């Protein structure tokens, strides 16, 4: 999207997963040192100005309007796959975490193998999906005060909430059993103990399903902002160790501090944009590219720890920003402007 973004992508990651070095300068000291170099200041300032200029130019001229309209229409046809995507995005890493012996985040070395593997498989099968997601959310929140490092895996919170909202979808065991139980004359339907309760809960949740993209967008925004501020801008020592460990200055020959500050600012900006719902699909695409480059650039970064993020940004690319987003206001403003221009043209004719 911008030169700054391209510059820092391989350094944008859960740096605690690949380095334990917590030493180094404070965030303010590193920022002062980086900005003291005119070249660094020009690169950071130029990246910010370029990003703003590109955004304003897009809003003014709306290039490829027809292409984007076709893309959005096509993505609408994928929305029925979103529940399945979310189940995979949380189920797979939960199974992996259980077998690997950590609790949600690789930084929390608690051994709850059977519990996490069971959660993961229930989500993958789509069996008792909403209840299992609720249990998973509770397990995360109860443990959080005792293991603050769980904030590194904060994406599980919006993920679980979104699954509660959208349900299991299909293909899933829930869908199959519901179809059988809801068909008159079936033997299973006579004995199913939860069909009525599940059907009732579906009706309760139905009005709120449309907020699932909002929950995911806000949760990812918080996660990105947290990683940018806490892991890089306030405590840059680990990030500097990662730059040195992987010799990232040989990839792009700039000051190591610029790598860390640039990565932190990029993650913070992306987090704020997601929270506000500005250019959501574009932000999701950028995040997907960042994850991919990080995994290829940092070979010992745990892949499973990023699967949830992959799934959630993919969901946002399909659904867009959802309700309560600046994108919706921008879209309405653009539509009103085109209508006014059309009416003016008719009047001139």
UniProtKB/TrEMBL annotation:
Q: Where is the signal peptide?
A: none
Regions that span the bilayer: 41-61, 81-105, 117-143, 150-168, 257-276, 283-299, 305-326
Q: Where in the cell is it found?
A: Cell membrane
Q: Provide this UniProt record's keywords sorted from A to Z.
A: Cell membrane, Membrane, Transmembrane, Transmembrane helix
Question: Superkingdom of the source?
Answer: Archaea
Cellular component GO terms, alphabetical: plasma membrane
Q: How does it sit in the membrane?
A: Multi-pass membrane protein
> InterPro entries, alphabetically?
DoxX, DoxX-like_oxidoreductase
Xref: PANTHER family: INNER MEMBRANE PROTEIN YPHA-RELATED, OXIDOREDUCTASE CATD-RELATED
Q: What is this protein called?
A: Uncharacterized membrane protein YphA, DoxX/SURF4 family
Output the lineage of the source organism.
Answer: Archaea, Methanobacteriati, Methanobacteriota, Stenosarchaea group, Halobacteria
């Amino acid at each position: 999207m911008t030169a700054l973004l391209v510059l820092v992508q391989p350094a944008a990651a859960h740096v605690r997963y690949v380095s334990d070095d917590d030493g180094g300068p404070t965030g303010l000291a590193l920022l002062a040192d980086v900005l003291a170099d005119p070249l660094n200041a020009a690169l950071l300032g130029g990246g910010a100005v370029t990003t703003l200029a590109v955004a304003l130019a897009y809003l003014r001229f709306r290039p490829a309007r027809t292409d984007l309209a076709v893309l959005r229409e096509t993505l609408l046809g994928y929305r029925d796959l979103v529940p399945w995507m979310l189940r995979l995005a949380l189920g797979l890493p939960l199974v992996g975490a259980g077998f690997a012996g950590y609790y949600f985040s690789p930084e929390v070395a608690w051994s709850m193998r059977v519990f996490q593997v069971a959660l993961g498989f229930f989500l993958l099968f789509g069996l008792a999906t909403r209840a299992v997601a609720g249990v998973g959310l509770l397990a995360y929140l109860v443990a959080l005060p005792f293991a603050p490092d769980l904030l590194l895996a904060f994406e599980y919170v919006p993920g679980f909430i979104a699954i509660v909202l959208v349900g299991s979808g299909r293909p899933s065991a829930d869908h199959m059993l519901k179809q059988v139980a809801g068909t008159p004359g079936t033997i299973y339907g006579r004995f199913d103990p939860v069909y009525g309760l599940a059907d009732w809960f579906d009706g309760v949740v139905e009005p709120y399903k449309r907020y699932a993209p909002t929950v995911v967008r806000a949760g990812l925004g918080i996660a990105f902002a947290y990683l940018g501020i806490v892991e890089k801008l306030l405590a840059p020592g680990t990030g500097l160790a990662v730059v040195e460990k992987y010799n990232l200055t040989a990839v792009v020959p700039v000051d190591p501090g610029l790598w860390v500050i640039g990565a932190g600012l990029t993650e913070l900006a992306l987090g704020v944009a997601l929270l506000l719902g500005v250019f959501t699909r574009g932000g999701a695409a950028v995040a997907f590219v960042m994850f991919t480059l990080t995994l290829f650039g940092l070979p010992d970064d745990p892949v499973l720890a990023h699967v949830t993020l992959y799934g959630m940004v993919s969901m946002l690319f399909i659904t867009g920003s959802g309700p309560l987003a600046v994108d919706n206001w921008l879209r309405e403003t653009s539509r009103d402007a085109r209508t006014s221009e059309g009416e003016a043209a008719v009047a001139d004719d």
